[in-house]
C-alpha cells in the first residue's frame, strides 16, 4: 500500500547572523562627510598644496577639486564592505556564515486537512560575488510529523546602494527524511523530494559587520511514505 502527501509551508523566516568571514582584495571607498551635512563616496583622495582635495568618484575616471575646509570628516569603508552615511556597513564581497530560525505553518492534504506550526533551524555559508548578489549553500532541520533535513543552494539579490534594503531569495534543493537515517522499519519506507523556498525580505545592517535578515515566503517540500504489508 502506498500513501503520499505534500507539505506546503508558509514561512516567516528570521535568519540571524549573516557574518563576514573574509574578503578578497577590493577598492575600499572613502566617505567624505561635508560641513553642510551631505557626504560623498569616492575611490581616491589626494591632498594638494593649495589646500584643496582632488577626489575621484566611484566608477569614474574624472577627478574633481574640493576645498578641504568643506570636509568635516573622512572615513574609509571596512575591507570587503561598503560604508553608508549612517555609519552602518554592508558586505560587498567575500565569504559569510549565517544561522537562523523559522516559524513554519504546515497544511497537510488528504483525509484530514489540519494546520500545524513548528520551528525550523538552518545554517549556511556562501560568498558575495557582487554587492547585489550572494550565492551559497545550507542545511536545515524542519519538523512536521517527523524531522526532514533539506540540503539546498541559495541565492539572494539586494539593492546595494542602501544599507537597509529589501532582497529576493531562492533556496532550491532536496529534502531528506531523517526517519530512515536513524531508524529503519522493515515494513515502512520514507522518501524525500524536491525542496524549494522563494522568499522576499529585508536586510538590516549594523555598525559591527553583522547583518540581520527578515523574510517571509513559501516552503515547498514533498515527503512520501511507502508501506509494505507482510505476506501471511
Explained architecture:
This protein is mostly beta strands and 232 residues long. It has two domains: 2-23 and 92-227; 30-76, Roll (SH3 type barrels). The chain is built from one helix and 16 strands. The protein has one helix spanning 179-182; strands at 2-20, 30-34, 39-47, 52-57, 63-67, 71-76, 81-83, 89-91, 94-108, 115-130, 133-143, 147-158, 165-177, 188-191, 193-204, 210-227. Strands 1-9-10-11-12-13-15-16 form an eight-stranded antiparallel barrel. The longest helix is centred in the last third of the chain and has 4 residues, at 179-182. The radius of gyration is 25 Å and the shape is rod-shaped. The relative contact order is 0.21.
Distance between the termini: 15 Å
Strand order of the largest sheet: 1-9-10-11-12-13-15-16
Helices, by number, come to 1
Share of β-strand residues: over 45%
Q: What is the averaged pLDDT score?
A: 76
- By DSSP, the count of extended strands is 16
SSE-based structural type: mainly beta
The percent of residues in helical segments reads under 10%
* Principal-axes shape call: rod-shaped
Largest sheet: 8 strands, antiparallel, barrel
Domains (count): 2
Q: What is the rounded Rg?
A: 25 Å
List keywords for this structure.
232 residues, mainly beta, 68% strand, five-stranded antiparallel beta sheet, single chain, SH3 type barrels, 2 domains
Question: How is this fold's topology laid out?
Answer:
Elements: E1 2-20, E2 30-34, E3 39-47, E4 52-57, E5 63-67, E6 71-76, E7 81-83, E8 89-91, E9 94-108, E10 115-130, E11 133-143, E12 147-158, E13 165-177, H1 179-182, E14 188-191, E15 193-204, E16 210-227
Amino acid at each position: 500500500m502506498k500513501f503520499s502527501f505534500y507539505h506546503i509551508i508558509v514561512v516567516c523566516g528570521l535568519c540571524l547572523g549573516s557574518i563576514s568571514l573574509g574578503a578578497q582584495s577590493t577598492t575600499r571607498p572613502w566617505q567624505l562627510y561635508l560641513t553642510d551635512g551631505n557626504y560623498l563616496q569616492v575611490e581616491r583622495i589626494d591632498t594638494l598644496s593649495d589646500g584643496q582635495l582632488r577626489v575621484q568618484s566611484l566608477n569614474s575616471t574624472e577627478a574633481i577639486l574640493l576645498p578641504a575646509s568643506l570636509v568635516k570628516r573622512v572615513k574609509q569603508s571596512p575591507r570587503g564592505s561598503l560604508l553608508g552615511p549612517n555609519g552602518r556597513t554592508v558586505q560587498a564581497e567575500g565569504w559569510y556564515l549565517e544561522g537562523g530560525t523559522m516559524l513554519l505553518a504546515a497544511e497537510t492534504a488528504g483525509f484530514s486537512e489540519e494546520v500545524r506550526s513548528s520551528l525550523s533551524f538552518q545554517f549556511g555559508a556562501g560568498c558575495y560575488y557582487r554587492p547585489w548578489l550572494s550565492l551559497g549553500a545550507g542545511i536545515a532541520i524542519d519538523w512536521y510529523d517527523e524531522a526532514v533535513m533539506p540540503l539546498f543552494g541559495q541565492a539572494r539579490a539586494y539593492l546595494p546602494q542602501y544599507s537597509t534594503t529589501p532582497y529576493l531569495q531562492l533556496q532550491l534543493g532536496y529534502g531528506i527524511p531523517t526517519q530512515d537515517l536513524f531508524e529503519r522499519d522493515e515494513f515502512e519506507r520514507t522518501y524525500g523530494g524536491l525542496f524549494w523556498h522563494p522568499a522576499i525580505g529585508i536586510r538590516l545592517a549594523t555598525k559591527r559587520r553583522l547583518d540581520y535578515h527578515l523574510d517571509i515566503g513559501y516552503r515547498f517540500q514533498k515527503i512520501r511514505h511507502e508501506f509494505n504489508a507482510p505476506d501471511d
